[in-house]
Amino acid sequence: MLVLPLDEDERFTLHYYHSVENAPIWEEHRLDADGNIYVEEERYQKLGAGMGRTPGVGHVVQRGPYEAIVDMHRPTGDFVLRVGSPGVDHTVLWRGTRTNLSLQAAHTAVRFTGRPVSLLYRWFRLLAPHPQTPVIRGVRNG
Q: Which domain holds residue 54?
């Protein structure tokens, strides 16, 4: 469905609208050199249903009108996202692209996984990007 050629320590963001509060939420994830995924930051407009702090994980700062939990570095491992309906708009933000998963796979369980690749494979994909990699100069939105 989507292939992101992430550099070591590069981030991608899951953005969506909370199904109860209809408030925007951003979850920044990072991939390490071994292919492990971590949640690094969560931002939201207000503390709504299902959102909250985990004692001992990160610290809270203000980012404009949003509250953010930063420096979380919480491992997720591979994880499954149950993609919401259009309106929830589960969207992956990466290198200026937006891929709205809710338009492609609403009500579907989507697995997020990372894995290291060889330098040779990375070079190959620079010349021939995977067909499921978003177009960086434009917007691929479903």
A: 11-127
Q: What does the mean pLDDT of the chain come to?
A: 88
Stretch 37-65: mean pLDDT: 77
Identify the pLDDT of residue 106: 95
Q: 49 phi and psi, to 5 degrees?
A: -55, 130
DSSP 33-89: TTS-EEEEEEEESS--TT--PPTTS-EEEEETTEEEEES--EE--SEEEE---TTT-
User: Is 17 within a domain?
Assistant: yes
Among 90, 100, 95, smallest CA distance to 24 is for 90
Structural domains of the chain, count: 1
As a whole number, mean pLDDT of residues 47-64 equals 70
**4: which 2 tokens?**
């992101």
